[in-house]
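Shapes recur. Our protein:

. . .
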Amino acid sequence: QGGGARYPYPKDVWSPAGGWWTRPKNWVSNTLVIGAGAAVIVYGVWSWSAKNEVRPSRAVPSSGSDALAATNSCADTAYSF
């Protein structure tokens, strides 16, 4: 039921993805290094984004919030941008 042993595959074929049945000895450490690098990059982008974030100082008409109705006394008031 196991399907038999793995058949011999050509040794002269090279693949950047590792080829057939790849299992490098240091796959765990490679995965941890890539994971740590990705975490550092995500943290840097997140911090930069939070530092440079600009929020609107007044209600945005397209936001759909009730804050816009509270700031304007008349519904047909023209907005000046």
Remarks:
- The radius of gyration is 29 Å.
- DSSP finds two helices and no strands in the chain.
- The helical segments are 27-51, 67-71.
- The first helix runs from residue 27 to 51.
